[in-house]
Amino acid sequence: MKFRLLLPAIGxxxxxxxxxxxxxxxxxxxxxxxxxxxxxxxxxxxxDGKVVKLRGYGTAAVExxxxxxxxxxxxxxxxxxIFTGVLLMxxxxxxxxxxxxxxxRFFDGAPPTWQSIxxxxxxxxxxxxxxxxxxxxxxxxxEVIAEAMKAPLAYPxxxxxxxxxTNMIVLKAIxxxxxxTSYEALLDREIVKPLGLKSTxxxxxxxxxxxxxxxEPVPGRAVVYSRDGQRxxxxxxxxxxxSYAAGGLFSSVADLARLFVAIDSGTFLSxxxxxxxxxxxxxxxxRPGGWAVGWTVRSYRGNTLVGHSGxxxxxxxxxxxxxKLTVIVLTNTHYFYPLLAEAILDTYLPARPPRVTLxxxxxxxxxxxxxxxxxxxxxxxxTASFAEKARGQAASYWDGFGQGYLxxxxxxxxxxxxxxxxxxxxxxxxxAVRFSEREGFLEMSIxxxxxxxxxxxxxxx
Length: 461
What we know:
Blueprint: H1 9-12, H2 24-36, E1 40-47, E2 50-61, E3 66-67, E4 74-75, H3 81-94, H4 119-124, H5 141-150, H6 166-179, H7 183-195, E5 201-202, E6 206-208, E7 212-214, E8 225-228, E9 231-234, E10 249-251, H8 253-265, H9 271-278, E11 296-300, E12 303-310, E13 315-320, E14 325-331, H10 340-346, H11 363-377, H12 388-398, H13 401-409, E15 412-423, E16 426-435, E17 439-446, E18 452-458
Antiparallel strand pairs: 1-2, 1-14, 2-3, 4-10, 5-10, 6-7, 8-9, 11-12, 12-13, 13-14, 15-16, 16-17, 17-18
């Protein structure tokens, strides 16, 4: 198909909207930055093709006190997949790749199990391709693909939807084979140049012998920080170029706003392509998967919510498709959890009705939840109530990224049961937890022995 030129008005919509008078969004962001010790952040809100909020906050680089602006490039981490989904659908519209192409046609010697796997399965994470150790590290794409060909599927194709990096490495290779163009060049050709993006690029960072980490400069970029106790530290990731479809892209809220203005305009992607970005896979069981074409799909306060976060909150993009309302939040700290975009989105939604809770038939399980949170708040999860096989993963989460979640939420005061269901042999309990800063939701899995098999934050449905 032929692509129409974007309206010149799109550029006019992106004039800086920074104003001195603080609004509710400013207060939400600034409060959270203080609570979570976030050096810098940036926010954009796009509503029905118009940028209604565009602002930077705080410091992009502490070392030289560089301020955040709407054009400051931030590391998107897994938020890169926002661009990957759009890029794939642009190539589908051009006829350069088809979602229902078998991936076996792109790889000599592909095993029989790959014949029924399609490009659509890859981008929906329903392929069943296995996790390959080292895929996020120094292995080349060819090495990862060769190992994946020899390994059995992790689950039958189409039966489940699990994020496994192998899918994105194989997808990147397919796009490059189908077009004869590198992934980075495709991104420039299909998105960066047509939309006039100024801050969207990879830095090609790699580790080299002699303890050297080498990258290309990204002018004005935000430095990524974390915390070691009370000490602020620089914590940069070197993304494997083979996995660039999954993470590693730098961009700004201004560039992301331009992208969503273009999507809303109807001139950049067809209605069918936009529908593919927001429609989740249907698994063989009939239930929906968690991903559409690269974007996550979930329910939030009774609405369908799409987007992606990464790092876990270096980037957080949420969108209400029915309202063409998109909230974009970028930060430069690993020590945080993706909470701000939802908090900003709440200012556009009706007030919450009174919380409906259930009578708790097993208060002893709730006590285990509160004890686990109490120990995690002190910096180290007590895993005594956890199943032995779950202890390592739970401790890794709550002693790591979970500390950012607790720092943002504050102290847990009480937990109310809002949902209880059986999934196979597991009892799944969802709680509304009253923290000192806000309400949060946690999902706790209980095995038949009454032990905690999993405990993680979830979004409000």
